Amino acid sequence: MVVNIFIYLEVFLSLVSYTIALYDNLATLLDGVHSPIAHLSTSNFYTITLIICLAMPSVWLVNLSKISFLSSVGVISSILLFVAVALTPAFSGIELNQKISSFNITKIPTVTGLYIFCFASHMVSVISFASVTLVYVTVGLLGARMFGAKVAGQITMSMPKSFAVTKMALIATTLTPLTKYAFEVFPIGVGVENSLPRALSKHTRRFIRRAFVSFFLLVVLVLALLAPQFQNVLALTGCIVSFGISVVIPCVLYLRIFDETSAASKTLLVAVICVSSVLGILGTITTGKSLVENM
């Protein structure tokens, strides 16, 4: 039960983060486009309507094989975003001469929340971790060297708007969240449908499932507009959920299952649990306070 709560909470907060990214990048992409549709799309209400219209049908599906190709779209979009960021200093005239503080102890809880979220969803393999680490470090260093302390929570918000590669990055960042709604919400829909009484007809259960995931997505969208801080929501997700799912709970279960673990291993695992718990609590307080202050 506890694990399920953590998983569903991670899905919810992750979708809030993706929606914030979608809204920010979509608004920036349409900014300056002089047409009635684009003008309407840049307002909060019409942006929400557009997102609902695009994403809602995908979360109603009960067979994701029909949209399995969207998972590859997300990967391609991420690659395009990485390439766009890498090309920015080479062709936009921005020099890599900015400086940023290399160590700020007050930001450790928040930063660890971001890091743990970034790595929590990847498979445990050397190739996977090495690949994402290379991408994260490269993009982080480029952002710091190009924009310094003024870099935005999303690097696409700092890139020059007139640069053609920026448009590519904005499109990629807009497409990526759209490919995640159906896959993230699907387990929740299945859980809701399976929890309904079998006395109900199949069509009734499907209707209730679709109504629930629709309401769930609506809550996600509303919360994304109330707390439009991408980096803080990601950090909060990492501190509240990812630390628990990826670090604390596995260590606790390992200690309970394997009684013959050596004393040194037990000490190490207990230390990891304690440090992770402290960082998670401090990060939750820090990011939560920042979110409340900026709402």
Task: Describe the 3D structure.
- The protein has 11 helices and no strands.
- Helix 1 packs antiparallel against helix 10 and helix 4 runs parallel beside helix 6.
- The two termini are 32 Å apart.
- By secondary structure, it is mainly alpha-helical.
- About 3% of the residues have low confidence.
Largest sheet: none
Unreliable stretches, pLDDT < 50, 5 or more residues?
34-42
User: How large is the count of helical segments?
Assistant: 11
N-to-C SSE string, H for helix and E for strand? HHHHHHHHHHH
Approximate helicity band: over 70%
Radius of gyration: 21 Å
Q: Could you report the average pLDDT, rounded to the nearest whole number?
A: 80
For the record, give the distance between the C-alpha atoms at the N and C termini, rounded to a whole number: 32 Å
SSE class:
mainly alpha
Tertiary shape: globular
- What share of residues are in beta strands? under 5%
Number of strands: 0
Oligomer: single chain
Subcellular location: Membrane
Keywords: Amino-acid transport, Membrane, Transmembrane, Transmembrane helix, Transport
Organism: Papaver nudicaule
GO molecular function: L-amino acid transmembrane transporter activity
Please give a quick description of this structure:
The chain has 295 residues and is mostly helical. The chain has helices spanning 2-30, 36-41, 44-59, 69-91, 108-120, 126-147, 164-178, 181-195, 202-226, 230-257, 263-293. Helix 1 (2-30) runs antiparallel to helix 7, helix 4 runs antiparallel to helix 7 (164-178) and helix 5 packs across helix 11 (263-293).
